[in-house]
Structures are given as structure tokens and as C-alpha cells.
Write a structure and sequence with these properties.
alpha+beta; globular; N-acetyltransferase domain-containing protein; NAT9-like; transferase
Length: about 160
């Protein structure tokens, strides 16, 4: 299973590295710098070509620092620009309010709740005019600059 991720045409994975761990370790020590991943799975959602998004920050000390947000934004921009995808789906456990808030802040909206599976389905349609351009593009601005802007925008809501 682990070796098949690079062979699956319906899955795209970005590995999230800790810049600090990578910069402080040997240049070849990518494995110890890994803190998580973000994935999209190509799916058919309500007869529409879509991508299901998943993110995981496995290292507890890396959580809450914006790595997941930045990785999701990069993945959405890549999927939009390079794959032509405009419809994204995420399924989140009902108890995972942190992830639900994260995706809501990225303009995902609740589509449904499954009590049987104890999960909420949230969606984002980038083909609508309500999606800001900054979610469909990615520049080389620093993580701190982007997080500061997102935090300010969230505080003004």
C-alpha cells in the first residue's frame, strides 16, 4: 500500500516538511523532516469531476502552526491550475472541530452531515465568483506573511 502512492493515477500527494528540521539536519535527511501530507483523490461527486482533499499533520509539535493551511492552499492551487479541477470535497469527523474550522476558513461550506458515519461533508466550488483569487494562485510569499493576512481576515469576519 505505501509503495503504491506514486503509481495511483487518481491520487496526488504532497509531503509536508518542517523547514526548520530540514534546514538544521543533513541535506539528505528528508525523512526526519516530514511532518505530514496533503492528498487529493480524483472522484465523481454528484456526477461532477471533483477532488476529495485530505490533510494530516502527524507531528504534534507541528500542529497549529499553519502548515496544514499552507499545504491545502498549495494543493488547491495546483489542482486548479494544473489539473483544471474546480470542485473540492472534504469529509471530517464530527468531533474534529479544528479541521472543520480550518476548511471553513478556506471557504468550504457544509453540504451534509452523516450521523451514521459521524462525519460532515464540506465542499468548495472554485468555478463560482465568490472564491477569492488568492485561493487559486500561489506565490513565493513567506508562510508568516500569508498566515498574518489570513489571521487578520479571520479576525475581521
Amino acid at each position: 500500500m505505501q509503495a503504491s502512492w506514486h503509481q495511483d493515477a487518481d491520487k496526488l500527494t504532497f509531503i509536508i516538511l518542517s523547514e526548520k528540521a530540514y534546514a538544521n539536519g543533513p541535506a539528505s535527511d528528508v525523512v526526519s523532516s516530514m511532518i505530514g501530507d496533503v492528498n487529493v483523490f480524483l472522484i465523481n461527486h454528484n456526477d461532477q469531476k471533483a477532488a476529495e482533499v485530505e490533510v494530516m499533520i502527524a507531528e504534534p509539535e507541528a500542529r497549529g502552526k499553519g502548515y496544514g493551511r499552507e499545504a491545502i492552499r498549495m494543493m488547491l492551487a495546483y489542482a486548479y491550475r494544473e489539473l483544471g479541477l474546480t470542485y473540492f470535497v472534504v469529509k471530517i469527523g464530527l468531533a474534529n472541530t479544528t479541521s472543520a474550522r480550518l476548511f471553513k476558513s478556506l471557504l468550504f461550506v457544509q453540504e451534509s452531515v452523516s450521523e451514521a458515519f459521524q462525519e460532515v461533508t464540506m465542499v468548495m466550488d472554485m468555478s463560482t465568483s465568490t472564491v477569492p483569487r488568492n485561493l487559486t494562485t500561489y506565490s513565493q510569499r513567506s508562510l508568516k506573511e500569508r498566515l498574518a493576512k489570513d489571521t487578520l481576515a479571520a479576525e475581521n469576519e
